[in-house]
Amino acid sequence: MASTDINVKLSRLYHLAQKFNNFYLTGFQKGDIRPFLVEGEQVGLVKADVIKQLQRYPEIFCIRNCEFTKQGIVELNPAFRDYAERTKQVDIVLRDLRSKGIFSALQGWRDEYYEVKSEYRSLLKMDRSATPLFGVRKYGVDINGYVQHPTQGLCIWLQQRSNTKETWPGKWDNMVGGGLSVGYGIKETAIKEAAEEASIPSDLVKNLVSAGCVSFFFESEQGLFPNTEYVFDLELPLDFVPQNADGEVQAFELLPAKECVERVFTPDFKTTSCPVVIDFLIRHGYITPENEVHFTQIIELLHVPLQSLYTYKSVLEQKQKLKQQNQSQQQSHLANNIKTIENGHNNKDATINN
């Protein structure tokens, strides 16, 4: 295959990277979102359709204007002072919304909880199905299972999700993946999901290699997905075949890297799992600056700086500090003027007395 043909084909990767970052690239300019605050810290973003429903719960959510943002803010009632109380009050609202069938995201309710975190601490937990409604940052774990085939080269295992899954039913996906639920660590989650989804035994899973993470900001009809995925690579024996154990996977398939790329481009592949596959193929030298004209842009879109996007508190503090500085300068200037006037009067008095 000529190098120009490869360039034409792989340039589709840039458009795919834009797709799974559709909110990051265009969402902030829409003007229909407000920061979601807990304990004075921004932990998410809330869109207008969700705000409309939250207005029905004024004792739990404070929706108000703010001089520091054009759209205003959504704040969990500051009277809820601890983790348990905040969790309880939010859960009451979410269960009520779920019973009314207002948001499709809540149809995936599964009593599995994600942490809602500020920079340094967990503030409450929330059912995973509800997190897109609040634009809460989510964390997951993915395992790239692969083999070095003697004739086909680099080959990658993919799973096909069960048709009964609440999200992305029937879509092709990474070999193993799962959300980081309350009470589980990153490596612990990887080992647990490897056993449940692919029946990977302990003598193989011990070979997991941490490969960093990818981050992206996707939007769908279900809400906002500011996701960070912790990535692991696992080279598998040629004779190993994954077997599902939890009923959430209906098939596995081993594909050469070239066919894996083509699968990722189809609508049959889970959009929010595309970054993990692309990252793997870059790290293993299949996608390179020589065969991908938008290589650097794709790299950037695999590592969106989510940690610096929710900055309401820091921006607020900066503006308040600037305001205080201006007030201090004004007061200092006024004091100097008063002192000058007083000195002038004193000199005048001294002249008269003389």
Q: Could you explain how this protein is built, in words?
A:
The chain folds into two domains: 3-24 and 138-308, Nucleoside Triphosphate Pyrophosphohydrolase; 31-134, Transcription Regulator spoIIAA. 38% of the residues lie in helices and 28% in strands. The chain is built from twelve helices and 13 strands. Strands 7, 8, 9, 10, 11, 12 and 13 form a seven-stranded mixed sheet that branches. The radius of gyration is 27 Å and the shape is globular.
Q: Which terms would index this structure?
A:
single chain, 354 residues, alpha+beta, Nucleoside Triphosphate Pyrophosphohydrolase, Transcription Regulator spoIIAA, 2 domains, seven-stranded mixed β-sheet, four-stranded mixed β-sheet, 12 helices, 13 strands, 38% helix, 28% strand, disordered N terminus, disordered C terminus
Topology readout:
Elements: H1 3-10, H2 12-19, H3 22-26, E1 33-38, E2 41-47, H4 48-54, E3 61-66, E4 69-76, H5 83-100, E5 113-117, E6 122-127, H6 131-134, E7 138-149, E8 153-161, E9 172-174, E10 176-179, H7 186-198, H8 202-205, E11 209-220, E12 223-235, E13 249-256, H9 257-265, H10 274-283, H11 295-301, H12 312-353
Parallel strand pairs: 1-4, 7-12
Antiparallel strand pairs: 1-2, 3-4, 5-6, 7-8, 7-10, 8-9, 8-13, 11-12
Helix pairs in contact: 2-11, 9-10
